[in-house]
Amino acid sequence: MGRVSDYSFINAKLRARIGIMHDPQLVDSMIKAPSLTEAVAKLDGTRYQQLSEVYRATGDLQQVELALLESEIANYREVMGYLPQSSSSFVSVLLEKVEIDNIKNAIRLWYSANVMHHSISYRSAYIYKSLIVHPINYDAIINAGTYSDLAAAFHGTPYSGVLSAFTFDSLAASGLFPLEIALDHKWFSDLESAIGKLSGKDRQIAEAIYSVDVDLKNILMITRYSYSYHLDAEHLASVIIPMGYIAKEIERRKAALSDDPVAVIREIIAFRYPQIIEEIAHIRRTSDDLTTVEENNREIVRIEEYLGERRKKEYNRILTGDPFTIGVVLSYFFICSSEESVIRAVLSGKYYRWSEDKIRERLGL
């Protein structure tokens, strides 16, 4: 089948949905609502109506979060059902990212109970435990008595190899950060492989989107973890995602990240991403003095804002281009994710009784 027949129906369907999404009046009315209950009620009559129903039934914002996750998963599955096999398989890999984030949440509960010796009984109810992509026993993860039991809970899944590389003692000494990075790297490796299985314009679009995405993530990790968290060269190298221009250029130049990692990547960034070179130049090595930490954080936030704007522009460009590619699907998922993030942020702000101005500031409005 050709690209037109592969994508004509689903892309027309998604474009229609995109046309009615991102209603600024909805967000504005939620921010202006005098209470959390009234903010949630603004979702009545929208595609988020189920969230309002869940809150009325439970009065529990975390149950609303769980319902939003369930809706997100259902959205991926619905779109996959309309796609040809190669594109559907690619979207399945995107859904694996949702699964990995859910796995992290479950492992954090296990860690909290077994390493930190905190009670997790009330929190376990907020883990999504149904099938996402792979059959995973989340109860077995949360309730594992030993690390061996935890690792055994992943037997037969693609994540087993990641868990087998760690021990209870290594996690107790270093925390969950190395394990979570290893899970992320596994996903990016799967993503790169899945992009390689796409063909023609689909592959070109996916490569363009995710190579830039990885580059900017690597820039953020190098700046944040080298200067703010003081990772040494070995640990910093293990954090970098081995994909995209930045990582490949560091490898090509055999550039060591030992002395001043940010200085090492400045030349690379100046050529590829000149828009953020000024922010990179302002980031300074810190001994945790409050002023420098705050200044660095402000520069990193600006880089993150650039990341968000770069993504928006790329997806908007795709929507005005060839309508018969996977690009419309990827744009749709991006817009859904952005909108859901705003909904979460507004509800969280209302829960903590933030002012309208503070919520708008956090949303960049």
From TrEMBL:
Family, similarity comment: Belongs to the V-ATPase V0D/AC39 subunit family.
Natural source organism: Candidatus Ornithospirochaeta stercoravium
Gene Ontology MF terms: proton-transporting ATPase activity, rotational mechanism
Protein name: V-type ATPase subunit
Pfam family, one: vATP-synt_AC39
Keywords recorded for this protein, A-Z: Ion transport, Transport
Cited Gene3D superfamilies: ATP synthase (C/AC39) subunit, domain 3, V-type ATP synthase subunit C domain
PANTHER family hit by this protein: V-TYPE ATP SYNTHASE SUBUNIT C
